[in-house]
Amino acid sequence: MTTTLPPRPAPGAARDEADAARPATTASPATRVLGAAALVATALLVLYGLVISPADREMADSVRLMYIHVPAATYLYVGCFFTTVASAMWLRRRTPGWDALAEAGAEIALVFSIITLGTGSLWGRPTWGTYWTWDARLTSTAVLTAMLVGYLALRRLELDPAARSTRAAVLGLLLVPNVIVVNRSVEWWRSLHQGSTLVKLDPSIEGTMLVALMVGFVAFGLIFAWLMVHRFRIAWLDQKADGLDLEAALAARRAESRAPTAPETEVTP
Amino acid sequence: MWRDAALVAGRDLRIEARSRVTVHQVAPFALLVLVLFAFALDPARSILERATPGLYWITVLFSALLALSRSAALDETAGARDALRLSGLDPSGVFVGKSLAVAAELVVLEVLLGVGVIVLYGAEPAGVGLLAATCLAATVAVAATGTLYGALVSGLRVRETLLPLLLLPVLAPVLIGATRAFEAALGRAPADGWPWCGLLAAFAVLYSVAGALAYGTLLEGS
Question: pTM of the entire structure?
Answer without folding.
Answer: 0.83
